[in-house]
Each structure stands twice: as C-alpha cells, then as structure tokens.
## 1
Amino acid sequence: MVPPPAPGPNDQSPYFFLSYAHIPSHDPARRDDPNRWVKKLFEDLCEHINNLTNLRPGAAAGFMDVELRSGHHWPERLSEALATCRVFVPLYSPRYFESEQCGKEWAAFLHRLSNHANPEGQLPEAIVPALWIPLPPHQLPEVAKSIQFAHEGQGPRYRDEGFYGLIKVSSMRSQYQRATLTLARRIVEVAARTRISVMNPTPEYQAFASPFRDYLPQRPLKVTVAAPSLSGLPKGRNPYYYGHTPQGWNPYRCETSTRPLAAYAADIAAAHGFQAEIGSLEEHANELTSETPLGPAVMLVDPWATTRADCQAQLRKVDRGGKRWVGVVVPWNDDDGQTARERARLRRSVDQCLPGRPSETSADVDSLSAFHRVLPDLLGKAANQFFRTAPAYPPAGPSSRKPRLMDPEDRHDQHPG
C-alpha cells in the first residue's frame, strides 16, 4: 500500500507522541536503562517516518518523554508536544493502563480532539495504538475499547507477542521490522488524513483526570502529596521545587530530575504490582482520615507544607489513631539551601503534625536514590498492615458447612463402584 502524500514541510511537528509507561529501575546504582527497548522502538519509528515523508531538516519525527534530557523542563516540554503532535500513539501494556501519568496524557490529547468533534460528537481519528504487551480486548478500559485498530498488516507474531516480544527475540527480527514499518506507515497515513489544530501548551494538563478509572488492578494504592502549589507557598519559600498543583512538587528538582516526586512514586508502585491514584492531601482527606481503610496509601510530605495552618490541621487528622496502612515519606534535600538552613525548625514542625506516625511505615529520605530504595519496602509494609486491618465480609446468603477432606472410605460411599 502506498501511503498518502505526506504533509508539507511547514506543517506542525512532531508527527507522533509516543505515550508509554516508564519502567523504574529496581537498583538506582545500575547504569542500564530499563526503558531502552522502548527507546529503540521510538528511534526505529522516527527513522521510518523520516524516510517516508518530506519532513523538513531539524523537525521532530516523534516525541518520547525521555528522562535526563538536559535543558528541557518537564512537564512544559511534554505539554508542548501534546499540544502540537499530529498523532497520539499509546503503547499498550498492563503497566500503561495502571499509569496515572499515561492516563493524563491520553486525557489531554482527547481534550484537544474535542475541538474537532463532528455534529454527532464523533472525534477525529488521531490515536493509533500499538502493542507493547498484548492484552485481551475485554481487559481494556472503555476509552481504549472505543479506538478501532487492526494488527493484520503487522503480522500474527506481533499480535501474539507485541513489540516487546519481537524486539527481545533475535529470531523475530524480520517480524519486528515488518511491524515497525507498518506502524510508521499508519502514523504517516493518519497524520495526512486527519488535521487537528495546534493548541497553546499548558502544564496544567496534569489536572486532567485519567480516563482509565474502569481499569481495575488487583492492588490500588493512594499516593497523597502533602505539598503546596505555586499559588499557596509559605511566605518567602523558593518556588523552584513546586508546580501548578501539589502533585507537581519535586523536592529533588535539577536539570537531570524534572519529574514530580509523585510520578516516581507511581512508577515504583507499578513495578511492585500497585496502581497509584495520585492526589493532593485535600483530595484524599476523607479516605485517609477514615477509621475503615479502603486500601493502602503512601503520603509524601513536604516539610514546608507543615508550616501552613490548613495542612497542619489535615495532617493531624490523618495522624490520629496511628494508621499503619498509611505510609509516610518525608523528603529532605540539603542541596536546597533554604531547606538546609531551616531544617531544625521544619523538623519540629513535621513532628508536631505527625507525632503518632508508626516508625515501621514511615521514613525520612535525603535523596532521590534513597527514595527509590526506601519506598518499595514501605509500600509492602503499608499493604500488609491494610490486609491485617481491613474488615472481612462473609459472602451473602446462608452459611455453608465447613469443607473437609474425605478419606478413601467416604469417597467410596459417595461414588459406589
């Protein structure tokens, strides 16, 4: 099949936005990148698109949210790509639909498409899914079920294995090449046929709710950010570490670490079988203060937030009763000179707000690498405490006799020969 004429050299770029679930490293000291295979897929797609089109020199064939990209402030760079890309390519996997960040990216692109809905409310076709790990169609959330896509052109091996299976097995190299070229042609075809206007980028896309709420993992987890937003900072506090919402807080922000701390927490949680629902202290207050837990939770507490009267009151309510299913992490950063100078005062403020936090499910961390080391253990302990504390509900209906093993004579009596 010959692809349609490619858009002209003055059209918007990038051609596509690759939306994928970050795989966190289990060992921050290791240099190998757990996302390197996704990066290879991205690079191969870009190479194909550059060969299939007349994309002008210097224009981006695609965008992938790659960590450690010096000089690019996340999430401003990411929001710009969502506002200008021609095609949105979600990379399906179980981890993808458990990712709050991926859900926000999808929601932001849907918001942009909504400006081009026809009179019947139908959105233009600008989402081209790809399989990283195959999923049964019935397991997809409704928003993904509504996206029509076919895999026939990419071959049966792709349908059964996904890109990850093809890329990892050397004997499937030809099937991988076929699948990537077919996907690149599909991206170019959709970009040529469907034109959506560029929007003004806004980092406030983080406020969008994930459309994956009906995708239910086995172990949901609340990740609560007790931090101020830029508009609610304590007087004189350096705004460098904060975002437009509490969820944008990153106490370890630098050129090589620009993602919010909650995004790291969600990645770590996903790697250990949890789906994180990220929210502010105000948004999660009712569930965190309930005496009947609905699930394990972890609370990320900015020491500066504890100097605000409203946050103090909410934290004391959460602290009441020593809720062991709520893990507490208090990050410190001595490279932040203001925090280092005020550490003693801030330490007292934290202790006054959370005097009853159990030691086994709470921790102070002094670096992002320490956060990666500590959080998995704390998540496990909070989950174990939840399962010990959660009420058990017997099934509806009349009680049944307690089952027991039958000896051979019993079985013979019930099933005579």
## 2
Amino acid sequence: MKPIVIAIDGPAASGKGTLARRLAAAFNLPYLDTGLLYRVVARRVLDHGGNPADPAIATAQARGLGRLDLGRDDLRTPEVDLAASAVASIAAVRAALLDFQRNFAASSGAVLDGRDIGTIVFPQAAVKLFITASLDVRAQRRFAERQIQGHTATLDAVRADLAVRDEADRTRTAAPLRPADDAHVLDTSALDADHAFAAAAAWVNQALAKV
C-alpha cells in the first residue's frame, strides 16, 4: 500500500500545527512541521548577520540545514517570524528544502503542515486540509503564545505582524499560500482545539475511505 500523506496548509496561528500533531498521533503517522525548516534557515541567516531576503545567502543556509537544527530553541521569536517569511519567498530556498520534505514521508507516510504541502510538495496527497481562521482570532492566539514565552509585544503589534506575513505569503511568486483545488477548507475561528480535531479527523477518515 502506498504511504499515506496528509497535507495540511494554512496561515500562521490558524491552529494547523496543533491539529497536525493530533492527527499524526491518531493515525499513527510521523509528523513534520515544514514551517520549522524555513525558521531554521532564517535563524541561520540571522546568526551569520545576513539579510534573509538575499537569495544567495538564504539558499546557502538552506542547503546546509541538518536535522539537528530542528531542535533549536530560538526558532519562535518575532524576529524569526518575519525572517522566515522572507526566506520562504525565495524559490531557490523552497527548491533546496523540497527533497527534505518528500524524503521525510517517502517510506512511512506522514502528516505535514505548512503553506504549500498540498499544492507543491505533495500535490497527490491522499488527504488535503486547508486550516484557516480570521486575522483577529489568529492574532489573539499568537499573542497568548507570546505572553507564555515572555515576549512583550502588544496585541496590535502581533496583529500587524501577522497581516504583513499573510500578505507576503499570499503574494509571493514562489508557491503562494492558497488552498489546493481539492483541499477541504476548515475555518477554526469559532472552534476550540477538540472541536477542530473532531471535524478534521472525520474528514480524514472520509477521504481515506476513498483511497
């Protein structure tokens, strides 16, 4: 049987990461947060004093990425958020990371979440979900995360950062953020984590029944 791939896409703070982890556990599949790959590239660029928007510098760091980099504890800061959006807009960076993502799911299948899993990385995935939520709800979620992490950014600042990142993700030339034509769109604005999981799991079961 062909390895099962569940592709989950959506904007920042839509709840796709939490949902992807729970689906991976429920369906006994490996999990990869592909956004973390771009955060690692961004962090590596910043560590070397480079400009995340410079294609040559960002691509070189993408090609040097190793699995140990994914364990860093400095990948979820406002600075890295914006830098990750910049490196993700570079086609050569995305190409450099494409094999990493595909190889991850090659033998055992996987649940992967990101921005272009269903459209570019795994266009033939058995299941495709696009998780979204309103900007205000996503800002509240990200603000709560930042408070737990000890950051001092205001809610307005967090909302503005998300709006900038949304625009960059939607309008970039390389793999812009959009639902795959055959993706199931799930709006989590009014759903807590348990209800979002129940809705997503029901859709996954329905889709897998057709495989």
## 3
Amino acid sequence: MDIYVKKAIIHSFDPGQPEINFSTSLMELSPLLLDYVTKKVEKVYSDDAKRGTLSEDNQFLLNINDDFIKSSEKVANFWREEFVLSEAQKMNDLLFVEFEKDTHLHFAFIRMSLRESFAHIDDEGNIKIRKTEKNLPGAGSAADESIVINLDTKEYHLIEKRIKYNGKNYNYFSENLLAEKPDISINHAIRAIKKTAQAVAKDMNKDDFMFSSKIQNAVFNSIEEKQALDPEELANQFFSDNLTARLNFQENVKESIPETLKFSEVPTERMEKKLSNQKLSLSNGIELMVPQSLYDDADSVEFIQNEDGTYSILIKNIEEIKNKW
C-alpha cells in the first residue's frame, strides 16, 4: 500500500479538562515518526473496517477544508461533543493526517487511547522501574478508533468502537458523527453469512461438518476470485437443490448484507489466509488441516459416511510424511 504522508498533527483530549489541548504546529516527521504515522493509517484499511460514501453536505465532512490545522480542530471539537457522553472516558491523543494514496488526497482522524506502562529508568547508574503514563500504543497495533476519507470520492473507511451511555451501547461515530449506516466489515459479513446459513441448514437437519466446510469453501472462493460477497450467489451454492432454503437465506441475511458487498481498497490477504485451510477437529482427538485446493479433490482426500453414522477419512497418494514438532 503506497501512502504518502504530507502533514500530521496531534491534539490531546483529557476528560478532566473542559477543552481539547490543541497543538499549534504540525508534527516534525522524522523517519521514525513518519513510519509510525504511516502504519497507523495503513491499519485503517483492514477487514475490520466499515465502509461507505459521505454526501457532499454531510456535517462531519463540512468540518474539513483546505486549512488542515483548522480542519483538525473542527473535527476534534465535533467528535468531543459526542464522545464526552461516554461513561468510560480515558485520556486520548487525536492524530490527524493528510496523505495521498493512488493520487487522491485523504484525510485521517485516528483516536489513540493513552496507556500506563512500566519503563526502565537509569538514574545516574541506579536502574529503576517506574510506571509511566500517557504512553502511545505501538506502531503495529490498531487505533482505538479511526476514519480515513478520500476527499475526492468522499468514500471512507471506519474503525469504530461503541460507547456506553445511560446503560446502553451506541455506535456513536457512524450513528451520530457521520449520521450514516456504513457497509459492515468483511469479518462481520462472513460471520453473518455463516450464522445465517447454518441456521437455515439446521431447520433442514443438514448442519453437519460437511455443510460448514461448504460454507467456508464458497466464501473463500468469492473473496479470492471476485473480491466480493454476493448473498444470492452464495445461496445458490449453499442450497442448490432447495429453493425455499435459498430464499430463506437471502431474506434472513438481507439485514446485514442487503446487496453485493465489494471489498474496494480493503486488503483481503489475512482473511484469505484464514479461510485457505479447512481445519477439522475429530471426536477421537485427531486434528486435520486440509488446503482448500485439495478438500474437494477425490484423488487427495475422501470423506466416507459409514452405515452406522460414523465417518471415515481416506487420505490418498501421499509421497512423504514429516513429523513437525
């Protein structure tokens, strides 16, 4: 992913203070800090990100203009008005980044909850361990909350966390700040598909391991080949011989995935890797991991259902066996 960071600034939010502590100047992006900021932005483009497109008159978007520092202050204040309702507030640093990606200008808002940690202190030869506050998370960790907006297309990627207010949990960022209902993330979409398909199969008494493997195989192929999840197409694969089941699946999954979900600008490598092997846990304690490319290959592995209801697994044409431990 090619990201060219142009500007960055960081402000401080302390729930005990009436206002945000605004920085007055941009960050000096040394190679170390540039790497940190870039990795934080890259983390927003994940399979946990929700996605959508903002309208030109969106109130959140109207806070962003050509003055990057002023824009960061406006967005920070806009965010604070909603976040202060949270029942569990912590100190946060608010990182704002202006960057280019694929020749498009982007604006990023990244909230990072500060942490307590222990540090090695060398006091004139006397080594001590002290607890330190206001520590930023590491470069490799995802931000607590973040949004990246393509300022040309108005498309956004959002990582959000719910806040608790009056005993209830709210997706305050998408519901209140953006006033949008974004597409669900890849991870949530896959979970919704699996849960819905298994529920429909259970009503048909077909929710066995073979059906679960069929779900995984279909989802894996859709992500790998089409970079998308189409509920109708998946329904045809899951329940090819049962029209009622196909319609039930599409109707029940529609609330989460109303139409084809495309994965534009979302790296799918991690999800593909996770789905690329069928992992089977057998009742006798044996565990098997079968690559998707071999799972349906009768010359490599065969699943046999015996007359007594038990299963046998036949693994074929093995040239070499190694003991890995």
## 4
Amino acid sequence: MGELGITGLVRGKARRTTITADQAERPADLVARAFHAPAPNRLWVADLTYVRTWSGWVYAAFVIDVYSRMVVGWQVATHLRTDLALDALEMAIWRRGHDSGADLSQLVHHSDRGVQYLAIRYTERLADAGAVASVGSRGDSLL
C-alpha cells in the first residue's frame, strides 16, 4: 500500500501507546528480530495495546513466553503509567515461579522503546528476577 501511496481508513484520533525514551538510556537489542527460544522462560516479549470501549480507551499490557506463545502475564487499565506494564510483569514472574518454580536467570525480556519498559522500577524488577532487558528498534515488536 505504501508503494502505491494509498492508506487505510482511519476513524477518529490515532492513539499513541509508545512514548519513546531517550536512546542513551536504552538496553541493547539482544533479540535482533530472532523471535525463537530453545526452552520456556528464555525469551519473553512484552507490549501494550489499546481498545476503544463505550466507556473510553482501555489499555492492555501483555508478557508472552516466546517458546510456548503463552501469555504469562497481563494487565488492563485506563492509563498508560508504568504500573500497567509492571503489573503484567509481576503476574508473569509470579506465575512462572509459582507454577513451575522456574529459574529466570537465563531469561531475556524484550520490549519496544516505551518509557514504561525503561522505567527504573520496571528495570529493577527485571534485575531482581535475574532477567536481562532487551529493547528493539522502532516497529520491532513480535506482538
């Protein structure tokens, strides 16, 4: 469509879910668009999306284990604050730790460049779990 100069119909104002953080603060891209994992809890991807409802906009954060394609953590809220993404991460860590006693020391957590994923509380929680953060380039999400 881009080559032909045509676009799809857009109704209403576009919603922006990724507020890009400063490039100097970003972790490296450890995934390089190779979205496959040799075992569970080796690669998780995280992203945010939004849904318009009769009550207004609702935002959803997801954490997916790439090996099984299973949603291991999620959260829904009416805001885009760090708590939204952090609650989804907490669910993923709890579920994997509680259900299987998983060791997350080999985990790579990949996300886009959104400020929610680069917030101090989020990156500290990843480090506490033993995971390594990875941040993709623009338009790089698996979801």
